Amino acid sequence: MQYRIVKRLGSGGFGNVYQAKGSDGNTYAMKLLKSVDMINKRRFEREIKIMATLNHPNVVKIYEWNLGGDPPDFSPWYVMEYLSGGSLREDMDEKFRDRYVYQRNRSINSIILPICNALAQAHSLSIYHRDLKPDNIMYIDRDRSTIKITDWGLGRDINRKSLMLTAEIGHVGGDPGYCAPEQWFSNENLVDGRADIFSLGVIWYELMTGSRPARYDNRMARPAIEPPSKFHTSISAPMDRLILNMLSLYQEERPKSVWELMSEIESRPDASYYN
After folding, report:
1. Helix, strand, coil proportions of the chain in percent (round to 5)?
2. Higher-confidence position of 163 and 131
3. pTM of the model
4. Of these residues, 131, 151, 192, 196, which one is catalytic?
5. Of 70, 178, 184, 227, which alpha carbon lies 20 to 30 A from 204's?
6. Does 138 share its domain with 183?
């Protein structure tokens, strides 16, 4: 199929994303690699393979790709579904502009649990996202009722060890405001699904309170994080503990898996009582 670029939608760490019109009349999103160096090209290839492996309603769909690129610049590209609802970051910025904090049922049922479900499939295939943040959570349309996880370029498929990049050992990237401490201060082989749980904890905390928790610092044993109930007294102590456990600096203190996390969320006494 032929594609005509309509406009640029955004720019990531190693790719630009454009709105494109296909020769079939449908609208798509096209991602083009910015710099065709070895590391970026291999990251781009890894992102394509991960997205092609996953098949989940809360993961962006990929349709077509060309790692060789097209003339005249031969930049590698891939085509994915077009998500017109904007990012969770944009949505949060709009909501918090007037000091509005999300209703908790929407946070859990429309955002947190769908992300958990998508991660459950990925983790079952030994794929970890490693760059979860509101910018990478997109709404499919302006109703903003359904989300999809995008930007798997820093993802890791431990079944494809040949795709692990030497330059990432000990420093796997990601937004320092959202990624787990072990992604920055530990060996790559120690990073597992609990890193995604940490990132999701930051997103959930921000949704509940309107601000991110205190950032970790390798000079501090443990940052002081105020429980979400300080901002909303209707949040129960068990829910406080769950979110704070997700944000632990220590992997062993977080939920052991995304399945355990979902069970914990759904068993909370305040999991269905939201104003």
Report:
1. 40, 20, 45
2. 131
3. 0.89
4. 131
5. 184
6. yes
